Structure formats: C-alpha cells, structure tokens
Amino acid sequence: MTDLADFSARLTALTDGRASAPRLKDGVMTIALDVGGLDPDRREGLAAAIREGALTVSGVTDVRIAMTAERKPGETPAPKAPLRILTVASGKGGVGKSTLSANLAVALHRLGLKVGLVDADIYGPSQARLMGSEDQKPQARDKKLIPVTGTLGIPMLSMAHLVEPGKALAWRGPMVGNALSQLIDAEWGDAELLVVDMPPGTGDIQLTMVQKHKPAGAVIVSTPQDLALIDATRAVSLFHQAGVPMIGLVENMAGYACPHCGEVSDPFGHGGAESTAGDLSMPFLGRVPLAIDIRRRSDAGDPPAAGEGVHADAFHAIARKVADWLKASA
Fold first, then answer.
1. What is the pLDDT of residue 327?
2. Coil, strand, or helix at residue 220?
3. Residue 70 pLDDT > 70, yes or no?
4. Does the pTM exceed 0.85?
C-alpha cells in the first residue's frame, strides 16, 4: 500500500500539476482535476490512472474525481447560457425531497450538465450535510454570495453555510423571501441549471420562487402513501396556477428489501405516485427504494448517485428523464 504523502507527490508528476491536493474522508478520496485543453481520450485516461493510483493508498475505498476546465489568462470566455431553475418540491415534509434533490443534482452533473444546488428550506436546511460541505462558508463579492463547492465539484448554497449549527431562525415571510433571493441570485459562474430543494408546503417561499424566480420546471416528490399524495397534489396545483411546467412525479421510499432474506415489503404502499401522476396527466419519473444504504450515505455526505450500484441507478434513471425534458424544452 502507498501512503497519502507519496501518492500526492506522484499525483503532481502524473498530471503535470493539473490535480488538486487529494482529500480523504471516511475512505473516499476526492480530487479536482483541471482538464482544460485535453481531448476526451486524454481526460479519461488521466482519470483512470489517478483512480488506479488512489486505490493503492491505505484506507481508500472509493475515488471521486471532479473534472474542471479553468479559463487561462487572456482567454475569451464562451457566452454564458441563461440560468434555468429546476425546483424539487413536495406538499409534505419527510418524503425524501432533499435526498432526491442532492442525488438529482449529482446525477445531472455526471451527465455533463453544469449544475448548481440551492437549499431553499430556510428553516430546516439539510443540503450541507447531504453534500458533505458543512465546514465551508461562502464568500461575497459585489454584494453577491459566491457558492461553496463540495467534494463532488457542484457549487451550492444553503442557510446551513451561513448560520451557526443548530441555530433556529425565527424569521417572518419577507425575511425568508429575501434570504431565498440571496441564494438564487448568487454568483454561479458557468452553471446553467440550478436544482432548488424547496421546503414542504405552499407558503411564502413557494410564492417567492414561482413569482420572482420563475422556474423552468418542477419535479414533485411523494411517498406512495395516500396522505403524502394528497399534499403532493396541492403542490402540483400551486405550480399549475403559477404556470410552471411539471417535469414529473417521483415515488420515493417505494419498497424495502430485507437485508437478511431479500423479501421486498411496502411499508408506505406501492404504485400510488404512478397512479396519481396518471390522474394528473403528468409524467411518472420513477421510483427510489427505501434503503438503509441511501440513509447511511446521505448522513455521511456521500450521495449514492456519486457512485455505482442499484441505488445509484435509480437516481440516474430519473436524472436522464429530467435531462431529456430540459433538452426538449430549451
């Protein structure tokens, strides 16, 4: 096995200084790699060589490589595409909307989209934990926030980056609306799409979002349970009234596979969200199972969509449908 210091030295030589210092946390090594000016074959070959070397380091079980393309001095930037907003919403709390938002952003990023992530749940932010960026604080320039960049190379902002951990915010509607606008109107660099994790309900934040920021489309998340679907239908109604297109409905916590016997049970029911999508004449985007691996990785700031396997596949299948919708509606 190799120690981290030796690998860091080899990494600099291997990449001609294109790689950042490796970061190791809970067995996951994260490296940012500048691939500007490299053709696709060279990019993939370099990434493969880095991954192979990283896995020889003691304690490393997984490798994350965030590819970036830094603009060189004197280089003219390409025209910036308009920033589009995709909201992930639900009418009810506790249905896994934040987990879906984080993994959808990661999966869209892996598909090649330039994605940013906003945690619009001002009172109960959770994206900093889900994306492993709790220890970061955003800077400001020209009265605009500069998003933090987590280990996966996705720029993001959350009130969790701005307030003390565990502190309750006792804010009324206008203050909440102003906070949301500061997060949305930040300096997002070359991001072309913002995935916005909305709080549950149909209140002040939702109204500010649809009236001021005008999302390109909305993804609705629900469990198969009737009570959750009733509230999800209300969320759909709000977006319809505001003229926000419906991208589709996701059924979360859909089926639990026993880790001992493999038998699948349905604690929250099965098929309710798909049936409701049909009743509302909107697309059904797919199902995400109720799985302890998703919960564990989410708590650890390691979204399953960043890796491989059946749970990653569930999020990637949804992301591909969302990406197709975005492309068709551009």
1. 92
2. strand
3. no
4. no
